[in-house]
Design brief:
Layout lengths: L4 E4 L2 E4 L2 E2 L6 E4 L6 E4 L7 E3 L8 E3 L2 E3 L2 E4 L3 E4 L4 E8 L2 E5 L3 E4 L4 E8 L2 E2 L6 E4 L5 E5 L1
């Protein structure tokens, strides 16, 4: 439910996450080096595509092994989530945004590493389209 917080213990989780319009706070208890969400090449690893606001938070994770048409690691559409202490690495896109794809979205990224992602068309690391504006602080 919107406003709920979910604390995640260290480990590797083979799954994908879709916030589904809920402003959830999902936070790792041990940090991004110890808590991994592995998409197992089965689509976007994390999806914010239903109007999530800055109250939707993802903090302390490595996002890896996503594979999708757009946004292998993360797909954002008409959303503005808050991402902190995240690594987005080893993701691929058939078209745009191997690491992240933003469509009409304005996320806030703080202390984020985007590396080792690929896309066949545009934006191996990040693709911003149609009035997307990311606020980046300490992003590599």
């Amino acid at each position: 439910m919107s406003g709920d917080s979910i604390k995640v213990s260290p480990g590797t989780y083979t799954e994908t996450i879709n916030y589904g319009g809920k402003n959830l706070v999902i936070i790792s208890t041990a940090g991004r080096d110890s808590t991994i969400i592995d998409g197992n090449s089965s689509g976007n690893v994390v999806k914010f595509a239903s109007g999530e606001s800055s109250a939707a938070v993802l903090s302390g994770f490595t996002i890896q092994n996503g594979h999708a048409s757009n946004g292998g690691g993360m797909h954002l559409q008409t959303s503005s989530p808050t991402l902190t202490d995240v690594i987005i690495s080893g993701n691929t896109a058939n078209s745009r945004g191997g690491g992240m794809y933003l469509l009409q979205s304005s996320p806030t990224l703080t202390n984020v590493i985007i590396s080792g992602n690929t896309a066949n068309s545009r934006g191996g690391g990040m693709s911003l389209t149609q009035n997307s504006y990311a606020t980046l602080t300490k992003v590599t």
